[in-house]
Design a protein that fits this description.
alpha/beta
């Protein structure tokens, strides 16, 4: 009886962990001289942990063992072709998975603040329009990856001084089960795309 109670408890714990909503808050602001901060929490921001810490001194890397001369050497051209093929497969895998990913990653809010000036009123006015265009072009890409609930952009031009201060903050929400399902879904698409690429390559040869 005790065994089944323990087993049931473990199953319930795993189920709760998988379906518990996780929030990640990111924050960076030049205006406040703050470094990039990342905090993960559940329900309330007070109950969480900071993911970014001060970098520890890196240990000296050990020298890699020399590769045996008998190992086949791949030409530089072949390496470039292989890298290109892998990037193409990854991009196609993402293309076929983007709707699946977008529905499972929620950007609850996204705030961007920019204070800038070019010490010239005419140039600053022209640059203001360009910055707004860049912001919304980037936002268009973001909305293809995440479902965005709320966003706020603010651009403050300074017509007398030369400066550029940037700030961004937001909250990303997801469930662990969604991350796992995304990983498996993308992996399946990647394997499918890779097989098709290999088949097409054989046919062309």
């Amino acid at each position: 009886m005790a065994f089944w109670i323990v087993l049931l408890s473990i199953f319930i714990s795993i189920f709760i962990i998988l379906f518990l909503e996780i929030s990640v808050k990111f924050d960076y602001d030049d205006r406040l001289n703050e470094n990039f901060r990342l905090r993960i929490f559940l329900y309330n921001e007070k109950f969480g942990i900071n993911l970014l810490k001060k970098d520890k001194p890196k240990k000296p890397k050990k020298k890699k063992e020399e590769k045996t001369k008998d190992k086949e050497k791949i030409s530089f051209f072949e390496k470039i072709v292989n890298v290109f093929e892998e990037l193409k497969n990854i991009s196609y895998a993402y293309y076929y998975s983007k709707d699946f990913i977008r529905k499972r990653l929620i950007l609850e809010k996204l705030n961007v603040n920019i204070d800038f000036g070019m010490s010239d009123a005419a140039k600053t006015g022209i640059a203001t329009g360009a910055i707004w265009a860049v912001l919304y072009n980037i936002f268009a890409v973001v909305t293809k990856i995440f479902t965005v609930y709320d966003h706020k952009f603010n651009v403050e031009p300074d017509y007398n001084n030369e400066k550029f201060l940037f700030g961004v903050n937001g909250i990303l929400k997801f469930k662990l089960v969604n991350i796992i399902s995304i990983a498996f879904y993308v992996l399946i698409k990647y394997i499918t795309v890779s097989k098709k690429t290999q088949e097409n390559l054989k046919e062309s040869i």
